[in-house]
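User: quick one, fold this
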Amino acid sequence: MAVGVVGATQHWEEEPGYREVNPGGAVVMLCRVKNKLGECRWERDNTPIAAFTGKYEWAGDRTKGDCSLRILNANFDYDNGGWVCQVTASSFRERDTLISQAANLVVRAPPTSVHLAKDSLAVREGASLVAVAGEGVTLECKSEGGNPPPALRWSVGGSAREGAEEEIDPETGVTVSRLVLRVVRSDQGREVTCEAAHPALQQALIATARLQIQYAPLVSVSPAQHSYVEGDTVDVTCATDAEPAASVLWYRAGSGHIVARQPLLRLEGVTREQAGEYVCSANNSVGTSQPDTVNIAVQYAPTIKALAPALQLHRLLRSKVELSCEADGSPSPSYTWLQHTDEGAIPRGEGRLLVLLSLDYQDQGRYECRASNFIRGEKRTANSQHIALNVTGPPRMHGDSSEMSVVRGTDALVRVEFCSDPMPKLSWQLGGLEGGQSKVILNTGTEHDRFRVMEEEAGTREDCYLSTLRIQAADIGDSREYVLNLENEHGIQQHRVQVTVREALALHTLVGGVVGGLLTLIVLVVVICCCRRTCCSKEKSLKPDMERSV
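Assistant:
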């Protein structure tokens, strides 16, 4: 009898757990107790089990609390079941009897057969499984026998398939796995396999069949997309793959208008109206194909469809105008806007819309929209009518003031360019004459003393003009500020010109400057010549010395 620790109570260190063993094999059912004082006992399925040499043997040292049992030559009939380890009380006074939870020992037994079924109908080994592409087929794999029940594994075409539902009938011992297989055309001829996997099997237990797929037509259009020039002949082919053979139909997308009932679609002398998407479809006894399409693009040169807002436009200075152009063409045309002036055509923008902000007089003119595309490397262009833009507003000049200088005794021409529509009232204010306080104002074509306002000349742009104040034989006293006043119904503008009259250079000063420059030039020439002679004489003296040394 083992001697325990005084005052300690026996308790579990390790209870038995689930175990598996092959028939004829050996297995240890573990059972360990702390402070063990009672006796070790075992029972299976409520039947006491005694130790028998060669069959049931103690696997550990019971005096140290190891009640583990070794089961030899495992047999399903004798050993399969729930095993319970018990330890009696440490004394008749104690209530520390130990009884473990039942631990299942499974004595493995291999399954005896496996076979396939479709829609609950048995399928012979290696036979065909007929299915329609796109539909789900319910396949069953049934295995009889096996402890524990076998694992049923599916594969299609060599690739494992998951997601099968499995059920076990404990009374009949039949394990059933159901796989819903959605087949496609590419599954044609693939092998379906169900394998019953079990550790007690010596060799694989497998059932096989081959898929026989029926499928609706598949269509393929070639070329899938192509571009043609108006007048070309279009040939597009619709290839079909179907079992059984299918009939082919071509129709226009959108309208559904049938254009051909054969694989070849031919459009001779194709027009822009025939451009668009065409659909090929095929059908057989299984069903109708998914349609395939071809987009037939017909290229043609641009044509101008619309100009806006009008061909004649009148806008105020500093206002905004928006010109729009719409053209039809394939490929879609690009747009360029040109402004035609007296100086030629000026590019003003790209795109369908041309927006001119804060209009100035230089913006007026004739505007043209040009739509262009490229067809087989050649540029095609359509030119629109001209939109005439007229800008009206107050007079405008470059800056509020300017300066000029003239030589005393010469005629001074004081010129100022301005733009205005309508033409403004014009006057020159001469300021005080010869230091006096009186102000003289001259209009176009009038004169006073040596001052005359000339008739306006046309400027460099439309509605632009040049006003000239002529001062005959300008004198020092004419150095002053002259003011050009402009006024029309839209506003007033002034421009101040500061005129400075200077003395001419004296004749003797000019002659002295010229003579001084000539003398300086002569001295430089002499110095250069002297330098060249000195260099030449040194070279001649060196040459005989070199010859003597040789």
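User: anything notable?
Assistant: The chain has a mean pLDDT of 88.
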